[in-house]
Amino acid sequence: MVSESDSKRQRLFDLIRQMRRVIVAFSAGVDSTVLLKASxxxxxxxxxxxxxxxxxxxxxxxxxxxxxxxxxxxxxLELLPTAEMSNPNYAANPAERCYYCKNELFTKLKALADExxxxxxxxxxxxxxxxDFRPGIDAARQMGVRMPLLEAGLTxxxxxxxxxxxxxxxxxxxxxxxxxxxxxxxxxxxxxxxxQVEKAENFLYERGFGVLRVRHxxxxxxxxxxxxxxxxxLAEPLRSELVVFFKSIGYTYVTVDLQGFRSGSANEAIAGxxxxxx
Length: 278
Hints:
Layout: H1 4-19, E1 22-25, H2 30-43, E2 48-54, H3 60-72, E3 77-81, H4 88-91, H5 97-116, E4 120-122, H6 135-143, H7 148-151, H8 156-165, H9 191-205, E5 213-217, E6 220-224, H10 230-234, H11 238-248, E7 253-256, H12 267-277
Parallel strand pairs: 1-2, 1-4, 2-3, 6-7
Antiparallel strand pairs: 5-6
Helix pairs in contact: 1-2, 2-8, 5-6
């Protein structure tokens, strides 16, 4: 008897096969890596191009991860500069910020597809993503970008299992988002603030914290790590070293979020405002 997960996987492969030649919006996250691997297996290397949008909101460590994973998969890779920072609607950092970012990316990917003769642009949105505030999904739909993982009904857990079955090295990689997601809605995004966040997070990554966010509240840094990592974060000498470093890059106050890490915590402010308006 075929399991539901196996049926979804077959559906994914069938959807990709129908597209014939695809550009994969590749971030090196587990979702887009599964999509890229499946596309390579179904369509062959000559019919697949991985493309990564490069801008100041992409952390340098993630760009290196993109290069390494594409090489490991023997996938053709193109790095495509994007200019969302020049769009005042994006830089103002409204709640719909991701829409403007994805619209910029997908506009350029569609133009590249037309130029190179690719029949579809695909991205790694999955079935769980529809349960959160994701304005980037609206941009994908408006631009005609396909979402095969979502169309096949694959959840994040099922995608991780598929990644493991495929032998992908990043099957357990934590969910990540661009550096701009660390800046609260309504606070303008600047090159300086993105650089500050990247330096702060690199400090923690280099000390063994694999799941984290440094939320940027202008002069205040709010650190999120899993609750089980809080004792290590607050232990000496790391606590003192962290405070000194964060102040050296421009923060006046350094705080720790006692709720711990949670992906998309910036959206909590949106949910709170919605509740108050009712």
